[in-house]
Amino acid sequence: MTLNDSTRDETPWDADGDKLREECGIFGVIGTKDAAAMTALGLHALQHRGQEACGIVSWDGKDFFARRGLGHVAQVFSDNVILSELPGSMASGHVRYSTTGGSGLRNVQPLHADLARGGFSIAHNGNISNAMHLKQELVNKGAIFQSSSDTEVIIHLIATSRYPTLMDRLVDALRMVEGAYSLICMTPKRMIACRDPLGIRPLVMGKIGDAFVFASETVALDVVGAEFVREIEPGEIVEVRQDGRLSSHRPFGTHPSRPCIFEHVYFSRPDSVMGGQSVYEVRRQIGAELAIEAPVEADLVVPVPDSGVPAAIGYAQQSGIPFGLGIIRSHYVGRTFIQPSDGARHADVKRKHNANRALVAGKRIVLIDDSIVRGTTSMKIVQMMRDAGAKEVHFRVASPPTNNSCYYGVDTPERHKLLAARMNVPEMAQFIQADSLAFVSIDGLYRAVGEQQRNAGCPQHCDACFTGDYPTRLTDLGDREASEEQLTLAVEKVA
Question: Would the pTM count as exceeding 0.85?
Fold first, then answer.
């Protein structure tokens, strides 16, 4: 996540420009030979959380070593020569998507700094919602920033804290930040893993032999052969020393947790376990809830691959309508935003998804997707079905309307560019040219994750992208809106 949040929407998104993207995935291990090799493998499993850049920092008992690069994990850490540059029994890694002003090696994590008490490395998943405010204060005091990442704010806060121990300095720094964070930090003596007091972003702990492993998702533990131990609790700081001693600290008190509900809808891999629940099973149940809430007479349930598959299976099972792969996705098409022209970009979109004409021709189709953001991809998919001969195209969405921006580490456009913020459901249906359109309700989504309904007084999850109910202060957003209002008043005064 970068500090230049005001321009984040100008960044090209995913291949179709129309998906919410989790911006980071983190992994760390302490107490095993070739820790960097295990970290690279763990990052492979988290590649879906960030595909533009990655990095690994290791510690060999004497020095820190770092390797960072733009591209996929396999590109940056492609052979034994590279991994040999990262010796030691402790390592942490990071995969990320960048935002405007944030691409380039200076923002690739983990970040590393030499503090008064030794080296310090930090990998961060999330977003600090008062980072610009804090940065201005730090710059006014003489701080010099080397990146535009909000993560560097945490390093400066630690460096300027007056507490005697590094752990106390870390706690002091985290008391000053707002927003969402899961962190994996390294010092010469320990690895530290922690989550924000509301647990908005995920973090789990595992063991393999005598080594401790931390990761954004359980699938990364599976891939490296580690046994899942438990989730890091909201507001918890877990410290593992070089001799294997583990201790837990809870300096922020107890708060009702608010984990991101969109992890269940889209971000996490379906073979992960989140909050004790199978992500795949939750998505299948969302589809079942959608079939109950928004039935339609049809001949075939078709997922928009790959994220719509589990929900489409649930819809088909609940409704009794046959499931079929009416859209085939090519997994060998690059991200289309790097193409030099709109024509090339459009051609790549068509190469990524192709209609299974023999299956959909003459059928009434129910299309299932995880979300609608700006609606451009949905419109293209609907038209693809019609071009393939579908008689009717009914669109069903496995999440409520996304009508608010996220400020907790998810790459979303400004609110006025979200389709659901500008149109009601019938208008959205007309925009994407579907015969009908329906979204799962917010209570239906909560039922799918094991709750009877959403508790409006104290929601069980962060669902601000659907409800506008943000669980923390948004200082930077407020400051920016105040500045824009002052500028508008000044212009009007001059006029």
Answer: yes
